[in-house]
Amino acid sequence: MRWKAIARYDVGTSHQSQELPCQDYGDYGIFQDVIVGVVADGAGSAKYSDVGSELAVKTVIDWFERVNKSSEQQEFSQSLSQIETEKVFARIVQEVIAELRQLASEKDYAFNDLACTLLVFIATPHWLGAMQIGDGFIVVRPQDSEDYQLLFQPD
Fold this sequence. Notes:
- By secondary structure, the chain is of the alpha+beta class.
- The chain has helices spanning 13-17, 49-69, 82-107, and strands at residues 24-31, 34-41, 118-123, 128-133, 139-140, 149-150.
- The radius of gyration is 16 Å and the shape is globular.
């Protein structure tokens, strides 16, 4: 299966008028027949949320790149149970928190100054798993449909 993916983000008009940086970040990785997408939106009240959202996304993609090079790579080609999927997402969240804490310590930032939302999906030809921390949403469109489907309600 060939995946098509686009990741785009830009400074919103309210941020432009206030001369604030873009606090959104997104990326994806394609690992054989598995695609992983990640989006983070910095919390507007957090001083370095733009840095936090970029680090969160890069951490997730880097984690999947390491897994893809290890013996665990077959793990994602097979359908995972709900419990297995939750464990994968829990590992991802732990990795992101650890990286954010490390950066906060190195830069002498408050951990909360890096606050951001985090949405991640893993898709294969046979299954789809997704997670969300904070608001935001993920939609999918099956190949045989013109309609988009919301995976879960924004929190």
